[in-house]
Amino acid sequence: MTDTATREFSTVGVIGLGTMGAGIAEVFARNGYSVIGVEVNDGGVERGRQHLEHSTGRAVKREKMTEDQQSELLGRITLTTDMTALSAADLVVEAVVESLAIKKSIFASLDGIVRDDAILATNTSSLSVTEISTANSKPGRVIGVHFFNPAPVQNLVEIIRTVVTEPAVLEQVQGVLRDLGKNPVVCGDKAGFIANTLLFGYLNHAVAMYEGKYASREDIDAAMRFGCGYPMGPLALLDLIGLDTAYEILDTMYKQGRDRLHAPAPILKQYVTAGLLGRKSGRGFYTYE
Ligand code: CAA
């Protein structure tokens, strides 16, 4: 599938089929790759299946895809709870919750499963790729690939190279991402990478503005949409990202840089504790059907 001279990639594993993982699985399957999607239990598999059916169903409704193309795409994705299925993967993309302990345990267990030449990627938004890589016996084959939400739509993917990532691994991952029609950018391993470092200070500021009752949520969002041409206002975007994810990203960036800009606005934590996680839970700054 990819035109990198050194290596043919045809099978991709995706671990974790939440919003991001399911979106990533869809992107690969859309581009002809065989995808093995792994979840921790049957409930996770079912949730992943629903994500995939909903997203591709939306494309069918908009006449961007026929029903036959949708079934072909879904037919390229195998969903399982069995990690050993990843032995067939050329590339594994981990997209589970932002927990260093969980990610490290996954990268450790991949050791006994994947082929020696497989590339292991993490979709972490803010954790240290270097730390995650140390859990595996081949840290040189570990790299960050950070997709943006919604993954089937946003063209940017940040590639995070650590000080030990093999240059050939970086080159091959760039080739695969270009093959998906994505626009990869490369950066070093620092919390937030390029886009979130720039984006989250702004999002956090919008939450503080809302929390301080300076303006309504609608007016804060309208100001940025109609005044600055952003496709979504900051509070609607936070609901799309997930308030739990947003909180974790801000908290990690704050702990690393101690920049007040990233000290999570208190109401964000309160929403997360109350289970208001944004679109995925049906309510965040806004309420969803
Ligand atoms: N899954 C798949 N496709 C989707 C989708 C989803 N969740 N949401 C929208 N789309 C597709 C639609 O099907 C449509 O495709 P076509 O043009 O082919 O028909 C296209 O996207 C446009 O959708 P809509 O017309 O429904 O809505 P829109 O024009 O308002 O676009 C949006 C929706 C793409 C989400 C747009 O508002 C946008 O780009 N918002 C900003 C998103 C953003 O900033 N993302 C980055 C978040 S930060 C991040 O992800 C990093 C992190 O670590 C948290």
UniProtKB/TrEMBL annotation:
Residues 192-288 form the 3-hydroxyacyl-CoA dehydrogenase C-terminal domain. It comes from Nocardioides glacieisoli. Belongs to the 3-hydroxyacyl-CoA dehydrogenase family. Residues 11-189 form the 3-hydroxyacyl-CoA dehydrogenase NAD binding domain. It comes from the Bacteria. Transmembrane segments: none annotated. This is 3-hydroxyacyl-CoA dehydrogenase family protein. The chain holds residues 1 to 289 of 597 of the full protein.
